[in-house]
Amino acid sequence: MKILLLQLKRIGDLILTTPAIAALRSNFPDAKITLAVSTECAELLPAISNVDGVLIARRNLRDVGVFSSVAGKRFDYCIDFTRNDRSAFLTLLSRARRRIASYRVREQSKTRARVYTDLVGVRVRDMHTIDYNLALLEPLGMRASSSGPHLDLPRTAHEKADALRRAWNTTRPYLILHPGSARREKLWDPARWAEVIDHFGQVNDFDIVLTSGPSADEQAHVAAITRRTREKIIDLSGKTDLLTLAVLIGQTQLLVTVDSAPVHFAAATQTPQVILFGPTNPFHWRPTDSPALILHGKSGAPVTEFAPVRPRFPMSEISTKAVISAMDSLLPRRAAAHSS
User: Fold this and answer.
1) CB 42 within 8 A of CB 56
2) pTM for this structure?
3) 14, 78, 186, 217: which could join 181 in a potential S-S bond, CB 3.0 to 4.6 Å?
């Protein structure tokens, strides 16, 4: 059996597809599974297990090779997690006898809907993203139970993380703060990040590490934070690749971040985290089986009830006090876990 999986979205989407990939491998151990991803996910591919081949769609002329590769193989199944024009075209090229997507495709385009043989009656807006991905496996006779994401981080990533810690003399347990995001509306005020850093910087039990992506906007945001801090920090912003960052997150005492890819790195490595949500609904993206406290709005208390429909809140409604309190409540648990 040959199966084509299309996940042509962001890094977080790919990580939250790993439970579906694992379920496919468990149910069809001899299947040849090919995964097609967007170029921004390419760096993460060495950590994605249970696949036999990968294709990278780059949104340029080099995609001709991807199209040819898909058209040249006769797939039995094609599962489209992405649901856009490009993934519909690849689905058509696959010539799979079963071509699966959400029924929402029909609402978006009746013409595009004709590409598929099976339109599953689920909407991503109604479900956690992991559960949505698993639901798309039902036409294969599968009803997989929900589980957390998984990354098989390679040895080279561990070696790079070790080298970074040695270079920056990071010998104590450390906290990671990842304040950056590609979306400006997800950014929390630099002065508040600085308050958090100065609060925990006075506690000599931990080193404080700042990380971020390499984009100019994220680097500017980190610079605005570091200008306001009094305490010593280890600034690794823009200095790690995705896999090395995932290893560093897997070894930290606690991650504090906005809604971004590191949330899913922490979930995959069972790392405790405090997550600041604002314009996105944590119902769809939150960790479901790893230690996490989620702040959304100005209540000050972590969110404990989640719903498919929830108001959007500006990040400014999350107080410094709420973040520090959430961090304090998770750190003792981590220390107790290590001492037991």
Assistant:
1) yes
2) 0.93
3) 186
